[in-house]
């Protein structure tokens, strides 16, 4: 299937998940994340979840990585250039919703993509080659193309990868791993 068809299908599938399913899926995914070797990780990039879209709740992950003395980094959208800027997310960071309802930091210290060691990426679905379908604006592909080659990029998804996404673009970035309920 093409990205546009997959985007529509998996938005609907995710929207139809019950709270019980989401809770079970998240617990399974959290355990997989807790089992990762993060000994060489200093800065962890996470997305701030949009509950209205039933994204995985990243608050427990923020707490977990902070407990391991890792710095949390979150993004802010630059609508004119369709890029992301990245900021440390500390206990005193204030959050506001942008025009699309995405939570973003407003009073934080900026950090470059090249300083990120571990990056978690939201998605709707991925394929067996670790390509993803996101919300369709290309923010994450532009962001990931600027990261260090040794940074670990992991997608978080409630669904098992499909065999292949049709219509990939030259700018699509394959992830290093995809965590989904097993």
TrEMBL record:
EC number(s) on file: 6.3.3.2
Entries under InterPro entries matching the protein: FTHF_cligase (IPR002698), FTHF_cligase-like_sf (IPR024185), NagB/RpiA_transferase-like (IPR037171)
Cytoplasm keyword on record: no
Positions bound to substrate: 48, 55
Keyword DNA repair in record: no
Keywords per UniProt: ATP-binding, Ligase, Magnesium, Metal-binding, Nucleotide-binding
Protein name (record): 5-formyltetrahydrofolate cyclo-ligase
Binding site for ATP: 3-7, 132-140
Top-level taxonomic group: Bacteria
Catalysis performed (reactions): (6S)-5-formyl-5,6,7,8-tetrahydrofolate + ATP = (6R)-5,10-methenyltetrahydrofolate + ADP + phosphate
Pfam families according to UniProt: 5-FTHF_cyc-lig
Biological processes per GO annotation: folic acid-containing compound biosynthetic process; tetrahydrofolate interconversion
Entry's transmembrane regions: none
Cofactor field: Mg(2+)
Family recorded in the similarity comment: Belongs to the 5-formyltetrahydrofolate cyclo-ligase family.
Coiled-coil segments: none
Gene Ontology MF terms in the entry: 5-formyltetrahydrofolate cyclo-ligase activity; ATP binding; metal ion binding
């Amino acid at each position: 299937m093409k990205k546009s068809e997959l985007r529509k299908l998996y938005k609907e599938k995710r929207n139809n998940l019950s709270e019980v399913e989401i809770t079970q899926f998240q617990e399974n995914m959290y355990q997989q994340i807790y089992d990762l070797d993060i000994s060489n990780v200093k800065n962890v990039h996470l997305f701030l979840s949009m509950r209205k879209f039933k994204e995985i709740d990243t608050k427990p992950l923020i707490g977990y990585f902070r407990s391991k003395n890792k710095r949390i980094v979150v993004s802010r959208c630059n609508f004119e250039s369709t890029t992301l800027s990245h900021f440390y997310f500390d206990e005193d960071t204030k959050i506001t919703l942008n025009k699309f309802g995405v939570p973003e930091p407003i009073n934080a210290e900026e950090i470059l993509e090249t300083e990120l060691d571990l990056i978690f990426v939201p998605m709707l679905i991925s394929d067996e080659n670790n390509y993803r379908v996101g919300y369709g604006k290309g923010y994450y592909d532009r962001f990931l193309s600027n990261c260090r080659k040794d940074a670990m990029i992991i997608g978080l998804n409630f669904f098992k990868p499909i065999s292949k996404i049709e219509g990939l673009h030259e700018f699509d970035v394959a992830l290093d791993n995809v965590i989904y309920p097993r």
